[in-house]
Description:
Blueprint: E1 2-8, E2 13-19, E3 24-32, E4 40-44, E5 53-56, H1 62-74, E6 89-94, E7 105-106, H2 109-117, H3 126-139, E8 145-149, H4 159-162, H5 168-174, H6 183-197, E9 205-211, E10 215-221, E11 224-228, H7 250-259, H8 263-272, H9 275-279, H10 287-295, H11 299-324, E12 329-333, H12 334-339, H13 341-351, H14 361-364, E13 371-372, E14 381-384, H15 389-401
Parallel strand pairs: 1-6, 6-8, 9-12, 12-14
Antiparallel strand pairs: 1-2, 2-3, 3-4, 4-5, 7-8, 9-10, 10-11, 13-14
Helix pairs in contact: 1-3, 10-11, 11-13
The protein binds adenosine-5'-diphosphate.
Amino acid sequence: xxxxxxxxxxxxxxxxxxxxxxxxxxxxxxxxxxxxxxxxxxxxxxxxxxxxxxxxxxxxxxxxxxxxxxxxxxxxxxxxxxxxxxxxxxxxxxxxxxxxxxxxxxxxxxxxxxxxxxxxxxxxxxxxxxxxxxxxxxxxxxxxxxxxxxxxxxxxxxxxxxxxxxxxxxxxxxxxxxxxxxxxxxxxxxxxxxxxxxxxxxxxxxxxxxxxxxxxxxxxxxxxxxxxxxxxxxxxxxxxxxxxxxxxxxxxxxxxxxxxxxxxxxxxxxxxxxxxxxxxxxxxxxxxxxxxxxxxxxxxxxxxxxxxxxxxxxxxxxxxxxxxxxxxxxxxxxxxxxxxxxxxxxxxxxxxxxxxxxxxxxxxxxxxxxxxxxxxxxxxxxxxxxxxxxxxxxxxxxxxxx
Length: 402
Ligand code: ADP
């Protein structure tokens, strides 16, 4: 079955058409600047070996964007299907499913209402995701749609991992707790890891380090997530591109008093001006720039950022080994995790030596493939696994639609 995977943001819409039986991408692309001047569709018909096509056309709303995607997919020259009938289902990436969704689900009217109830927990993302569902329903009536939530995979966490040390009434009243994000990636990578180390998923202990601009770690024991570093929102945990990660909450009050800033202004700083961008004193949030600085032996930017970032990752690996009573595989994925041998080296050489881990530098320098990059016979293995959230969404969608 061909599954159209949609990842809808407030002004963009990423898509892939995936043949779920052969697990192959047929076409992919992105609509940019929806509702803003200068909107365009960037489209690549992968299956027919076509090159990237850019279609510049006004997209006043998401319905127009979806219409342009469908037109491109069915086009006589650059299209990959004859008609919309060849698209069997749509899988939507949804950010927050709260406690209501512990798995992917067929989208019905009740499900849409339940997603709306989670809007408060992800005010920037969930409403945009819902707009994407609405646009697809308008243009593809009768085609089954599935919602795949970023939070669902983490719903298996035990209470001791998801409760914060704050008055319980806030959990009861507002559902303030750890939810975790990037769940589709953690799910995909942990499954792949168990295959690669040759141990059944239900019997393995896996740590997934999803290190991108946004970054999170999870502990997956016997096929279930038991802890993860992001929390109520994606601000908690690791030091990220622009987000602060873990810090003393009293810092908020301190800055408010010293700088005369409002809570909203401080939250903007913690979300958009912190992380490595903040630590590098505004130099860059992009890890490629930070790495270049590190290679040029710039102690202030390169060393300071990469050491703080890597140390935090290593601390979480330690904590999750304790949470799972050991670990079989430690996986690196996402933009930084997949592409940065330097960061993998700092983490493994500086902090994981006590586990006997040794990296093969030739393998560590390869890119774009699933690899076990450690050579030690004993102890946990170190894996690099390019994540594939779209494929996971297509798999869940076709399974639910069948
Ligand atoms: P997100 O999905 O959270 O936006 P990605 O997973 O796409 O993030 O990761 C983006 C990050 O990956 C950027 O900081 C980018 O610099 C980093 N990255 C990409 N390629 C490399 C590389 N070769 N070396 C180091 N970092 C890289």
